[in-house]
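Lecture 7, part B: from sequences to assemblies.

Below are the input chains for today's worked example.
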Amino acid sequence: MKTNNIFRHKILLLAVASFAFALPGRAQLFPNTYMNIDWQMNVPLGDAYADKTSGWGMNFEGGYFITPEFSLGAFISYQTNIQSIDRQTLQLPDGSSLTTAQKHTLFELPFGVAGRYNFMKHRVFQPYVGMRLGADYAEMSSYYYTIQQYEDSWGVYLSPEIGASIFPSPDQRFGFHVALFYSYASNSDRLLIYSMDGISRFGLRVGISF
Amino acid sequence: MTAKNLLMSLLSMLAVTVVSCQKEPSTSGLHEDFLVYTDYDRQTDFSDIEIFYLPDSILLIGNSDQTEYWKDADAQEIIGTVAEQMEARNFIRTDDKTAAQVGLQLSYVEQVTYFVGYDYPYWWWYYPYYWAPGYWGDWFGWHYPYQVYYGYTAGSMLIEMVDLTAEQESRKLPVIWDSYIGGLLTSSQEINMQRTLNAVDQAFAQSPYLITDSLIR
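Predicted structure of the full complex, as structure tokens:
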């Protein structure tokens, strides 16, 4: 059974944040670039495998301003949704039967390219509309008794978003980032008696921008 | 630190963070009750079976280097529950092992963790204190006609039905129904016992194919 050390995870995030907050003196590492580091929450839509809203997610994105308005970059994000399943008897596809309580998790890790069209550059409040396109790795797991049973899959990822960078001092380009997004991934998989045909989410990102 | 080094540091930390990013759920609530898994041989017609034999002991799987059996009043209550469930499905119990068509063997895992997989059908040979195939006759090993994947952990019970009418050419005794019950180990002996009895009932409840019409033949 796989385990994660959550404390070590928090230390790493703290280290990333510490570096980021040390940046204002030279906020823009490279000319005409941007970077976002966000906390991410999402609401699963439709008939989701693990259908509870979750704040277990992060987002990382960086890009280059091809023109003053248009930027192109790369992103990677991840999130885990968790759902408790009451004790029940499952008639498994192979004919066997299983009576147990479960915890379902759906872990999703999309990455790819991100394009943005930015408005009101050089202002404190700089809104944008964006689109992400890439690949999506997903792992659907069922935890029961002392067992984790899981299946993983790959799919195509598509995610439009609207957001804004907020720079208290626009010349420094160090501030905050907020975005709303919808995402769809084409991952399809089966586990025990459950099936997944696509992953749809609505979500919110809040973080830092530089 | 140059901007390039700083960026590389950030990217390195990002990579480590993403790799260790999956959140695992709390599993403490999953041990509040028992688990029951059952499987069976699809080629067996259980309605053709009439007579079963059930030993008066439960084999204990632990760290002892001696074969141990559980025979006290609690064991008899568990064995009695299995017998009642079989008889409720019209199977007839016999005291004559040689007259039985199927045998039922009960095992309780006390301390150890083992894994049985279809890829390792001779696991039983590695554990000499399990039910010896020879207990049931001129058998030399075990055989599962279906895939078997489960772990044995402390506080687990196995109920297995073996086909004593099978051809002995291979000398491997077929296990035609098995039930794995987990989660029977709490700090309360009373709870453990009640869970065990409930789990035995559940094992039969989720095996509706385990029924015969022997009484009306």
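Note for the exam: Chain A touches chain B through 46 residues (CB under 8 Å). Keep this in mind when comparing with the next example.
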